[in-house]
Design a protein that fits this description.
Structural class: alpha+beta
Distance between the termini: 20 Å
Radius of gyration: 19 Å
Number of strands: 8
Strand content: 15-25%
Helix content: 40-55%
Shape: globular
CATH superfamily of the largest domain: GAF domain
Number of helices: 11
CATH architecture of the largest domain: 2-Layer Sandwich
CATH topology of the largest domain: Beta-Lactamase
Number of domains: 2
CATH class of the largest domain: Alpha Beta
Strand order of the largest sheet: 3-2-1-6-5-4
Length: about 270
Amino acid sequence: MAASGLLRERDLRALTAVIEDGVRDDPGPAVPWAVLHRLHQLIPADAVLFEEADLRNRQPVVDQAVLDGDVQWFDGSEGPVPAEVWAAHASFLPYTYSARTGDVAAVRWSDFYSQTELKNQPFYDLLHHDSPVRYGINLPLPAPAGWTRKVGLFRTHRDFTERDRLALQLLRPHLHAVYLDAERRRHGVPYVTRREREILHLVSQGYSNAEIAGSLFVAVATVRKHLENVFNRTGIRTRSAAAALALPPAASFSVTPVSGTRSGTELRENDR
């Protein structure tokens, strides 16, 4: 993807650092902490958050955040989110945009609400009424059906720009690869058969068992049995962790000038 003049050479170096440092760092509770710290440097913000949740059960899985340089994370062990909080999230358009439209673009809060409209949203009233946060940008990441996974950045004094949006879009497939690599490193890399790997690869893209069966021309029961075999052999109990077994190690960036532009560059993906 051509990056156009919005991103300069130093931005591309910062993009590369997000991924390369993430691959080298410890896997962290969800993503390596280096990923969030480097994102914070690439796109200065008051907070950078990685969030994963089980939508069907209103259950947070993990919230991992860098807040003004400090780190914190929650693993969802406190149980389901209260109904009013979940309803507020569900009515907040920036958080539901990808699920409603199928569009995986990064979106800003200001794409949907003016500052006055934002303050009248139930989500904002419940979670940010006593905080100075006024601006946010969210990037949806691939997740199994019924789950959500996203990166969010938040600011107090100024909105995010098209440069920030483009940087996140370019990072999206690589952030997903780093997340899966971290899952694999947390759980080890047990043996899986070729057919199991094919199924897990489709799981990683968010396909249901029925959709996988249709794609591979097998019965749904066959897909279910393969997944049960993986779960029993590895001890893994979530689809996202199992999906991490299917993919190669995280991709790395190489930066190549785009002909015909002065400051434009292009990111190319290389298998490590």
